[in-house]
Amino acid sequence: MTYATIGQRIKQRRLEMGLSGRELARRTGLSASFVSQVERGKTRISLESLRLVAETLDVSLLHFLAEEPPSPDAPPSEAPAAKPQRYEAVVRAGGRPQLTFPDSGVTYELLTRDLSRQMEALCGRLAPGTGNVARRLRTPTEEFIYVLSGALTVGLTSGAYRLNPGDAIYFEGHELEQLACAATDEEAVWISVITPPAF
After folding, report:
1. Cis status of the peptide bond prior to 165, with omega within 30 of 0
2. DSSP character string of 110-178
3. Of 33, 42, 39, which is closest to residue 15 (Cα–Cα)?
4. Does domain 3-72 correspond to CATH entry 3.30.565.10?
5. Rounded Cα–Cα distance for residues 186 and 127 (Å)
6. What three-state secondary structure class fits 106?
7. Distances (CA, A) of 13 to 92, 113, 193
8. What confidence tier does 159 reach under pLDDT thresholds 50, 70, 90?
9. Span 94-195: which CATH code?
10. Radius of gyration of the chain (CA)
11. Which pLDDT tens digit goes with each residue over 11-43?
């Protein structure tokens, strides 16, 4: 997933909501020039800024990874009707949408075909010594994390837990406060399943 594509999808959603670039900037606390540059693919957006934009546009963070979003250049009222398609159950390893934030050391890959189902699944990667503070999701959720490799610290309101390969944890979404790579020499890789889709 390129930053230009993310910018196009931000613009598409903003137009769907009838917001100007300046209004989106005001609601997120970002500058209007920054929002414009992001939408045109001229600058990168950080994970934290994208979370603010997603929250303001009332979509999940993974909305920006969706396959085949509507054309960002067509006004919402003129967007073509969606073509009915047969659901593809398999998501191939080389065909997963991926969102990488070099500044925070985190990468997310969408493991489900789309976000229209009852749950979403993603593969997360954190570089050694990095972490991201979790934000409150838009809706109450339940989440399951299974660590594939490395070591992951999961900070919940009840405490911090170090998970090693093969370890799993299940919790209410509002309890999550932090995810961090617990090692300095190996990335943490995990699978997360969230229901309903809200990440």
Report:
1. no
2. E-SS-S-SS-EEEEEEE-TT-EEE----SS--EEEEEEEES-EEEEETTEEEEE-TT-EEEEEGGGEEE
3. 39
4. no
5. 7
6. strand
7. 27, 20, 25
8. very high
9. 2.60.120.10
10. 17
11. 999 999 999 999 999 999 999 999 999 999 888
